[in-house]
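Structure first, sequence second, as always.
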């Protein structure tokens, strides 16, 4: 009775393993990416009541909801981008299960993002992280902490006449993570894995282009990255199993070492 899952269960029950929610609450107010008007637009989250213990259903309550695949805290599958369109196992219903439960490295770019809303994480920043915490292991999620999740309303998308302004990785950083570290994917606190001005990069939207072209995934609109250690957490990020889906809203949870004083789930 001391197998690895029993020890996990004991850790959860005792609070020695803590569960952290990295998910924003999904509602109609949560901002979505806005593209130039000539392109199709992602729909916001909508919800309508079907019945509420009333004449429409006296003993039950339920709702219909609708939204774009890329709404709220959400998962990007490789088929989201043209560079990954022909890859096998590239949609949310086929992406390998090992991608959905995996260790995370959290690179703290919050100071840089506070100084510069267009901050681009570069290879030097990743190497600085590795000098302090050791090499990013193959098969990890890399989460770029910017504290952007704490921004409210229009500051979140930060749209101006020349487009959105928010931090992200530069092209070389993404290529390094894909080619040299073989990560599972990149997670951000902003509305995309790319910076707000990444349309001007070469190639445009380099995180989408390189990650998805290599079969890697994305997580966006994460919150609570400030609660995670640089290394040592495990991320659970399982999108809805939409046939041929390119992404999905989801609940992202992290397990991390806790103090043992906090009951599980609080
Ligand atoms: Mn997306």
């Amino acid at each position: 009775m001391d197998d690895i899952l029993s020890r996990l269960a004991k850790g959860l029950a005792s609070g020695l393993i803590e569960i952290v929610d990295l998910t924003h609450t999904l509602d109609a107010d949560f901002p979505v990416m806005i593209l130039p008007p000539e392109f199709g637009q992602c729909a916001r989250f909508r919800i309508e009541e079907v019945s509420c213990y009333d004449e429409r259903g006296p003993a039950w309550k339920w709702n219909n909801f609708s939204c774009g695949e890329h709404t709220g805290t959400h998962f990007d599958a490789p088929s989201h981008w043209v560079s990954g369109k022909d890859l096998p196992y590239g949609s949310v219903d086929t992406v390998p299960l090992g991608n959905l439960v995996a260790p995370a490295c959290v690179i703290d770019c919050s100071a840089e993002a506070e100084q510069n809303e267009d901050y681009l994480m570069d290879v030097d920043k990743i190497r600085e992280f590795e000098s302090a915490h050791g090499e990013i292991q193959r098969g990890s999620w890399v989460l770029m902490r910017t504290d952007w999740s704490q921004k409210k309303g229009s500051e979140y998308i930060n749209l101006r006449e020349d487009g959105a302004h928010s931090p992200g990785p530069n092209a070389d950083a993404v290529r390094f993570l894909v080619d040299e570290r073989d990560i599972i994917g990149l997670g951000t606190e902003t509305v995309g894995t790319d910076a707000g001005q990444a349309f001007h990069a070469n190639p445009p939207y380099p995180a989408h282009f390189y990650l998805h072209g290599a079969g890697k995934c994305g997580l966006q609109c994460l919150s609570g990255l400030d609660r995670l250690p640089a290394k040592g957490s495990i991320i659970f990020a399982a999108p809805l199993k939409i046939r041929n889906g390119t992404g999905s809203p989801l609940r992202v949870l992290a397990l991390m070492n806790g103090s043992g004083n906090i009951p599980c789930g609080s």
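Margin note: Residues 4-14 form the longest helix (11 residues).
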